[in-house]
């Protein structure tokens, strides 16, 4: 696709997607600043990081201030650079039926689930480390127990080690869809590299860019669900995003 088109919303994961190639990130940041002013493009970061971990990365990588930050794998949304208070409207949307303490108790029955640090444990997210070898047996068993207990929860496994349990109604893609509805925006692109980005490509955004260094679980999903709306870049990180934006006619 070569015809230039307007971008209403730009959504990207951070680690190993937007971040990882400093030169390409500077180039992409400059372009994003321009289209935010000239086209009114909304910039959205969708990260698995907690708010504190995002803050450290934003400083070290000199990230642009986003119009919305989706943190903790889609369970928290922060608007217009305000990182003090998560958006209560989104919390109300995902919180109904969420039984965090009960889920934690169930998880203790699985010896291979090792809790992540306390900073990564959030009101609507319970996080563990799980090896790739153990995941083959543990994840189906865990899903079965959660279903048997009638717990509306979603399990997301990414990067060969990170397992997050979230409310059923929440993930990165659902959070982006909620923002789209609130902002009345349609023409957008999502960018990602790992399993917790799959939901970004499964909702209503017209276009998706998978960077060239995408993880096996995302590549497998792409292989099974490939469409012309999704582009697998050759280049890595921000350079791959630029490649995809050019492919779709945004740059």
What does this molecule look like?
With 251 residues, the chain is α/β, with parallel strands linked by helices. Helix content is 37%, strand content 19%. The protein has helices at residues 22-39, 51-60, 88-95, 100-107, 132-148, 172-183, 216-225, 237-247, and strands at 9-12, 42-46, 68-71, 76-79, 114-115, 126-129, 153-158, 162-167, 188-192, 207-210, 230-232. The protein has a seven-stranded mixed beta sheet with strand order 4-3-2-1-9-10-11, with helices on both faces. The radius of gyration is 18 Å and the shape is globular. The protein starts with 8 loop residues before the first strand and ends with a helix. 43% of the residues are buried. The mean pLDDT is 93.
How many DSSP helices?
A: 8
Radius of gyration, rounded?
Answer: 18 Å
> What is the CA-CA span between the terminal residues?
11 Å
Order of helices and strands: EHEHEEHHEEHEEHEEHEH
In a nutshell, what does this entry contain?
This protein has 251 residues and is of the alpha/beta class. The protein contains eight helices and eleven strands.
What are the main properties of this structure?
alpha/beta; 11 strands; 19% strand; globular
């Amino acid at each position: 696709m070569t015809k230039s088109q307007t971008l209403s919303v730009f959504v990207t994961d951070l680690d190993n997607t937007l971040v990882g190639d400093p030169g390409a990130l500077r180039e992409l940041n400059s372009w994003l600043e321009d289209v935010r002013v000239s086209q009114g493009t909304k910039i959205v970061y969708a990260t698995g990081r907690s708010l504190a971990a995002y803050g450290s990365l934003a400083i070290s990588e000199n990230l642009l201030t986003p119009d919305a930050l989706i943190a903790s794998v889609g369970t928290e949304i922060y608007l217009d650079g305000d990182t003090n208070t998560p958006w209560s409207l989104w919390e109300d949307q995902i919180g109904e039926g969420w039984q965090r303490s009960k889920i934690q108790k169930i998880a203790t029955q699985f010896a291979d689930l090792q809790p992540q640090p306390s900073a990564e444990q959030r009101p609507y997210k319970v996080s563990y480390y799980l090896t790739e070898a153990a995941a083959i047996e543990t994840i189906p068993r865990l899903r079965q127990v959660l279903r048997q207990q009638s717990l509306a929860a979603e399990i997301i496994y990414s990067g060969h080690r990170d397992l997050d349990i979230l409310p059923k109604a929440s993930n990165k893609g659902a959070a982006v869809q909620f923002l789209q509805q609130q902002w009345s925006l349609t023409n957008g692109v999502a960018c990602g590299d790992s399993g917790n980005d799959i939901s970004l490509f499964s909702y209503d955004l017209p276009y998706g860019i998978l960077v060239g260094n995408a993880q096996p679980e995302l590549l497998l999903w792409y292989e099974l669900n490939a469409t012309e709306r999704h582009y697998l870049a050759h280049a890595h990180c921000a350079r791959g995003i630029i490649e995809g934006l050019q492919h779709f006619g945004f740059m």
